[in-house]
From TrEMBL:
Principal location listed in the UniProt entry: plastid
Pfam families recorded: TPT
Species the sequence originates in: Quillaja saponaria
Keyword Chaperone: no
PANTHER family reported in the protein's UniProt record: SOLUTE CARRIER FAMILY 35
Domain of life, per lineage: Eukaryota
Subcellular location, record wording: Plastid, Chloroplast membrane
Keywords: Chloroplast, Membrane, Plastid, Transit peptide, Transmembrane, Transmembrane helix, Transport
Membrane topology, from the record: Multi-pass membrane protein
Name of the protein: Glucose-6-phosphate/phosphate-translocator
């Protein structure tokens, strides 16, 4: 019996030695197995956060009962649901460009209205102290032309590439622009700024009538109907104007007609011309200055200007020099911004902006110059401006 036990013990020791030789890491494997045996009771608790859970083989049968814990779905590529995530993705380039464009247009509009208001205020101050509208108009064009020539010479702005054909097509536009500019300045020298702009809000009526009877164009019925409040409002404002002046009234009417022809010539002559809005208006100012200067000398003349300037200095003082410089600079700037905005917006948006600009000028001039306004006069102005807005909507 003892021999049998010894043989068995020897056999066990030999098998253990053989096993150790075959597996040098026997100790590690045995410790690993021991760890696994210790983790067996916890195996059913091991899980990964959604969407994947692991269960022990022994608990596989209870998986059906826990099916509501996880919802796994697969979708086709064209029917896939968006992945929910707390991470905010950056906006698309298209969204950023559209937002930047809106901001740019808003800046153009705000600058355009502000510059126009400032110009009208200083222009009226100059004309009250120095009532020579032909020279005042010439100085505003000369200032703008000088500013652009300096910008081109110093390469602050890129000079336009023009030829003889360009200036030929620009000439009728410059003639109409010169007449409209001088007529508006003459009007503001005789009547209030608010009255001039109320009459100038009737420009759409001139545009439709000229296009219909001279160019043979036809318009939808709503366009013709929108002219009724424009004409009626302007007539009501003119009849009830306390400081009515026929020269001032006719100057505003002539300005409307001239600017209509300017727009017609500009559309017909500048098709296909690759000149930016800023440079286009600069060229227009230079050519208008060349046209206006001899007429200003013939109508008023240096002797009248010298006498009027001495009177203005004695009554107002050196401050009148700043007024003249301000009205000249701001006239060019507001027109330049308006032409630059035409490159960025549609004609409908420009028409609406022009209507709002006129409202801001009328209201600000009434407040600053304390212009007396009757309720009926204000009603006529509101009707005319509202008709202008309806026209801009119906025209499109």
């Amino acid at each position: 019996m003892i021999c049998s036990a010894k043989q068995a013990f020897t056999a066990i020791n030999r098998s253990d030695i053989v096993a150790r030789r075959k597996s040098p890491s026997g100790i590690q494997r045995s410790s690993l197995l021991a760890s696994v045996q210790m983790l067996k009771p916890l195996q059913s608790l091991v899980a990964v956060q959604r969407p994947l859970h692991l269960y022990s083989v022994g608990n596989f049968g209870s998986l059906r009962a826990r099916r509501n814990m996880i919802k796994c779905e697969a979708y086709e590529a064209d029917r896939s649901k968006p992945i929910e995530s707390n991470i905010e993705l950056p906006p698309k380039p298209e969204t950023r460009s559209a937002a930047a464009q809106k901001v740019k247009i808003g800046i153009y509009f705000a600058t355009w209205w502000a510059l126009n208001v400032v110009f009208n205020i200083y222009n009226k101050k100059v004309l009250n102290a120095f009532p020579y509208p032909w020279l005042t108009s010439t100085l505003s064009l000369a200032c703008g032309s000088l500013m652009m020539l300096i910008s081109w010479a110093t390469r602050i702005a890129e000079a336009p590439k023009t030829d003889f054909e360009f200036w030929k097509t620009l000439f009728p536009v410059a003639v109409a622009h010169t007449i409209g500019h001088v007529a508006a300045t003459v009007s503001m020298s005789k009547v209030a700024v608010s009255f001039t702009h109320i009459i100038k809000s009737g420009e759409p009526a001139f545009s439709v009538l000229v296009s219909r009877f001279l160019l043979g164009e036809t318009f939808p019925v709503p366009v013709y109907l929108s002219l009724l409040p424009i004409i009626g409002g302007c007539a009501l404002a003119a009849v009830t104007e306390l400081n009515f002046n026929m020269i001032g009234f006719m100057g505003a009417m002539i300005s409307n007609l001239a600017f209509v022809f300017r727009n017609i010539f500009s559309k017909r002559g500048m098709k296909g011309k690759s000149v930016s809005g800023m440079n286009y208006y600069a060229c227009l100012s230079i050519l208008s200055l060349l046209i206006l200067t001899p007429f200003a000398i013939a109508v008023e003349g240096p002797q009248m200007w010298a006498a009027g300037w001495q009177t203005a200095l004695s009554q107002v003082g050196p401050q009148v020099i700043w007024w003249v410089a301000a009205q000249s600079i701001f006239y060019h700037l507001y027109n330049q911004v308006s032409y630059m905005s035409l490159d960025e917006i549609s004609p409908l948006t420009f028409s609406v902006g022009n209507t709002m600009k006129r409202i801001s000028v009328i209201v600000s001039s009434i407040i600053i110059f304390r212009t007396p306004v009757q309720p009926v006069n204000a009603l006529g102005a509101a009707i005319a401006i509202f008709g202008t807005f309806l026209y801009s909507q119906a025209k499109q």
